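Journal club side-thread
Mid-discussion, someone asked how the predicted structure for our own chain would compare to the paper's figures. Pasting it here so we can look after the session.
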Amino acid sequence: MSQNAENEALKKDIEQLRNDLAALAKSYKASGEQQAQAGLDSARGKYYELRDEANRRTQDVGSEIEARPFTSVLAAFGIGLVLGKLIGR
């Protein structure tokens, strides 16, 4: 094989290697993007679950206050006194 033919074969091999590395990098990038999107979707779903739970609990507390307004006022007053004593120190 001549020197020129060897150089051409080497250039082709290098070009193929470059193409393979580019394809591999693209594949890893796509995989990383998919994993990031899956994590984002999971976090978003958890956020919506927690938001809905907070809304339900807020409604429950509101219902409890409406059912027992006098007890709720006394409890709030007592909690305020305790927090005032703790903060005042």
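Post-session note: The two ends are 93 Å apart (CA to CA).
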